[in-house]
Automatic annotation (TrEMBL):
<keyword id="KW-0808">Transferase</keyword>
<dbReference type="Pfam" id="PF01590">
    <property type="entry name" value="GAF"/>
</dbReference>
<dbReference type="Pfam" id="PF00360">
    <property type="entry name" value="PHY"/>
</dbReference>
<dbReference type="InterPro" id="IPR003018">
    <property type="entry name" value="GAF"/>
</dbReference>
<protein>
    <submittedName>
        <fullName>Multi-sensor signal transduction histidine kinase</fullName>
    </submittedName>
</protein>
<dbReference type="GO" id="GO:0006355">
    <property type="term" value="P:regulation of DNA-templated transcription"/>
</dbReference>
<dbReference type="GO" id="GO:0016791">
    <property type="term" value="F:phosphatase activity"/>
</dbReference>
<feature type="coiled-coil region">
    <location>
        <begin position="409"/>
        <end position="436"/>
    </location>
</feature>
<keyword id="KW-0175">Coiled coil</keyword>
<dbReference type="InterPro" id="IPR029016">
    <property type="entry name" value="GAF-like_dom_sf"/>
</dbReference>
<dbReference type="InterPro" id="IPR052016">
    <property type="entry name" value="Bact_Sigma-Reg"/>
</dbReference>
<feature type="domain" description="Phytochrome chromophore attachment site">
    <location>
        <begin position="33"/>
        <end position="201"/>
    </location>
</feature>
<feature type="domain" description="Phytochrome chromophore attachment site">
    <location>
        <begin position="456"/>
        <end position="592"/>
    </location>
</feature>
<dbReference type="GO" id="GO:0009584">
    <property type="term" value="P:detection of visible light"/>
</dbReference>
<keyword id="KW-0378">Hydrolase</keyword>
<keyword id="KW-0418">Kinase</keyword>
<feature type="coiled-coil region">
    <location>
        <begin position="610"/>
        <end position="640"/>
    </location>
</feature>
Length: 750
């Protein structure tokens, strides 16, 4: 009683309570660790109260609790530090009063009474104007509970916690500040006030510790996020596999998956579920159940599964995890600006939990009688599913956001790269097309120049096949000329040195039926990409295969609605898909070949006519010379009369065909002048003809024909006039020679 008297004197003087609060406050300022603060606080409060035990009891989320700090005087009571108490030891009604009314309690086991002192109104939650203590009888169970603990008097003050980051949130019941004494004692009202002030200081310390823990957690969270962000962004290429492994390790997982929706890619690490045999080739995220969840979760909802075997929506896929240690999962959809990119999955294994209880607990049924022993009892729980904590979910969401950003950037980079590649391919394609166009222009110009400078059409055709083979990069190009009765012959060819020449070859009639000719006359272009698989007549296929032809391209050459021939390209070492521009090139050069052939034929016709006229003129000259020689001989032999008669008959015979030729030349000259005059008038009144007329004018070399044709006709007319002149001379000579003899009937001589 001496110590109590001394403490009472100190309280009366006011120094004891000030010292207590000062020491607790100083400890809060000196230490940032809540455990140190609580240990110091319970020691100071127990010393101040002079009781056998003062402890801090902290509530868990399920209502149970643990003694986290304790101070005992000379081991008068057994230690409870580190022991857990079930939620039923403190009824829910009592916990509600601790929170709503901040109700304190003082129990005296000896007289069986409890004093209750609320600070707030349980109905309104507002502070009461006075701190009164109301006494009533203690529940018998409570008396038995304290007696079994060895306690005869107790004082309980609630410890509330206000989250400093949520000013508007209601406080929660963090724990209890409890004082136990092994003998009955009467606590004065002033002591209750001092303990309440100490509890308020402890609440402040808890708030500071919470802030510190949150700051440390935030710092650690930033370190983790930065480390994984560096893996995702600092490397030349995105390190998804490495970042996934770091994420799984950070969150304490045994496995995980990263699924990217757009590419259907899946990255895995650690333990993985296995689908049944019929779905073994399917990616887990492509399963219908997973797809349904992804469709519902594209708004950003996280699915935290503590125990997948107790999740009703997971019954269908749960067997896939039975061969693994996986028990819990965290499924996080990856979204970037409302765009769903994929899923990050984190797997946790089942754990073993050890809980040190204050006294043995029957886990099968609820405790019906008060606890009679508080001796430490270790409970081992195997195969437990760990709970996902809010801070873990927050960290996982932050990491998922970094994955989403990295994946989005990778997809954007790939899209930009694809666009650049497409642009490069387009530029290359356009360049190739331009190059082909330039090559085509060059070839056409070369062929046109050759047509103008050389009237040998075979030389022009040889140039065409050579340039076509060069442009198409094919094995052989030839021109096949149609002869009588649809027979044909290869007249020009340009081929690879490794191929045997087929120049001069004629095809069997049955391989070129009349139906083919009609189709080619109509402009048919035939591209055979693969001789082996194309729908061909057996004879045609055998003929092509005999020449080792794997693919060919056939373009007709038509003139005046008649099939003149074919220009053909052969691919002899592999099949080939002929392109439209290649067909256009062949068609264009086939048109050039037609112009060359027409001009050559026109030139040949003019040369033939000229040669025939010259030959006939030479024959007439020779006949005249013979007549002159004969006449000279008759004169010399004094047989002029007979010679005159004979010469007159011969002259008359020669004159008839010559007159016919001369008359036709006159008509032909008139027609030619009329046509040339018509052309001149067209040129006069239509100085700007269409492109096709200009092209045709240049092709046939109209100026050359205009100048040369009249000259040919004039030359032929002069030769005919010369013959007529000689015939006239011969006739005059015959008449003059016969005038002295007798008259002769012309018709009779003829």
């Amino acid at each position: 009683m001496t110590a109590v008297t001394e403490y009472s004197q100190e309280l009366a003087a006011g120094t004891g309570e000030e010292g207590l609060l000062y020491r607790i406050t100083a400890r809060i300022r000196q230490s940032l660790e809540l455990k140190d603060i609580l240990t110091t606080s319970v020691a100071e409060i127990r010393s101040f109260l002079g009781t056998d035990r003062v402890m801090v009891y902290r509530f868990d989320s399920d209502g149970s609790g643990e003694v986290v700090a304790e101070s005992i005087h000379q081991q008068r009571l057994p230690s409870l530090l580190g022991l857990h108490f079930p939620a039923g030891d403190i009824p829910q009604e009592a916990r509600d009063m601790f929170l709503r009314a901040r109700q304190r309690s003082i129990v005296n086991v000896a007289n069986g009474r409890i004093g209750l002192s609320p600070l707030d109104s349980p109905d309104t939650g507002k502070s009461l104007s006075s701190e009164n203590i109301y006494y009533r009888a203690v529940d018998s169970c409570h008396i038995q509970y304290l007696t079994a603990m060895g306690v005869q008097s107790s004082l309980v003050v609630p410890i509330l916690h206000h989250d400093p980051q949520e000013q508007t949130a209601r406080p929660r019941l963090w724990g209890l500040l409890v004082s136990h004494h092994s003998t009955p004692r009467t606590d004065m009202k002033q002591e209750l006030q001092i303990v309440q002030q100490a509890a308020d200081q402890i609440s402040v310390a808890i708030a500071h510790s919470t802030l510190l823990s949150q700051a440390r957690a935030e710092q650690q969270r930033e370190v983790v996020i930065n480390r994984i962000t560096n893996l995702l962004h600092s490397q030349p290429t995105i390190q998804l596999q490495t970042a996934l492994e770091a994420t799984i390790n950070t969150l304490g997982g045994v496995g995980g998956r990263l699924y990217i929706e757009s590419t259907k890619e899946s990255y895995t690490i650690g333990e993985q579920p296995s689908l049944p045999d019929e779905s073994a080739r399917m990616v887990m995220e492509e399963h219908l159940l997973w797809q349904d969840w992804m469709n519902e979760s594209k708004t950003g909802n996280i699915w935290a599964i503590n125990d997948l075997y107790k999740e009703p929506h997971w019954e269908e896929l749960a067997p896939a995890f039975q061969s693994t240690q996986i028990r819990g999962m965290l499924l996080i959809p990856l979204n970037y600006r409302q765009n769903f990119l994929g899923v990050l999955s984190i797997f946790r294994k089942e754990v073993e939990i050890e809980i040190m209880w204050a006294g043995h607990r029957d886990t099968n049924e609820q405790q019906k009688l008060p606890q009679l022993s508080f001796a430490a009892w270790l409970e081992q729980r195997k195969g437990q599913a760990p709970q996902w904590k809010p801070e873990e979910i927050t960290l996982a969401q932050a990491l998922a956001d970094q994955f989403a950003i990295a994946i989005q950037q990778q997809q954007m980079y790939q899209q930009v790269q694809a666009i650049n590649e497409n642009l490069e391919s387009l530029v290359e394609e356009r360049t190739a097309q331009l190059q082909k166009s330039l090559e085509l222009t060059r070839v056409v110009k070369q062929v046109a120049n050759q047509i103008r400078s050389n009237l040998d059409y075979k030389l022009t055709l040889q140039t065409i096949v050579r340039e076509v083979r060069k442009l198409l990069k094919t094995d052989r190009v030839l021109i096949y000329k149609i002869l009588e009765k649809l027979e044909g012959e290869v007249i020009v060819e340009d081929a690879d040195n490794n191929l045997r020449s087929i120049l001069g070859m004629k095809t069997p009639l049955e391989c070129f039926p009349e139906d083919y000719a009609r189709l080619y006359v109509r402009g048919r272009v035939r591209a055979i990409n693969n001789v082996a698989s194309e729908d061909l007549a057996p004879c045609h296929r055998e003929f092509l295969q005999s020449l080792q032809i794997k693919a060919n391209l056939i373009v007709p050459i038509t003139m005046n609605n008649q099939l003149w021939g074919l220009i053909i390209a052969h691919e002899c070492f592999a099949p080939r898909n002929w392109q439209d521009e290649e067909m256009d090139l062949m068609q264009h050069l086939a048109d050039e070949a037609v112009l060359a052939i027409q001009q050559a034929q026109l030139y040949e016709s003019s040369r033939t006519a000229e040669a025939a006229a010259k030959a006939q003129a030479e024959e007439l000259v020779q006949a005249l010379q013979q007549i002159q020689q004969t006449q000279a001989q008759l004169i010399k032999s004094e047989k002029m009369s007979s010679l005159g008669l004979w010469a007159l008959g011969v002259a008359q015979e020669i004159r008839n065909p010559v007159n016919f030729i001369y008359a036709q030349l006159s008509d032909l000259s008139d027609y030619t002048h009329q046509l040339l005059e018509l052309i001149r008038l067209y040129q006069l009144y239509y100085p700007h003809p269409t492109g096709e007329i200009c092209y045709q004018t240049e092709t046939i070399n109209l100026d050359f024909l205009t100048n040369h044709l009249p000259k040919i006709l004039l030359s032929m007319k002069l030769q005919a006039e010369r013959i007529n002149s000689m015939m006239l001379s011969l006739r005059n000579f015959s008449y003059s020679d016969l005038s002295s003899v007798k008259g002769v009937s012309q018709h009779e001589n003829i």
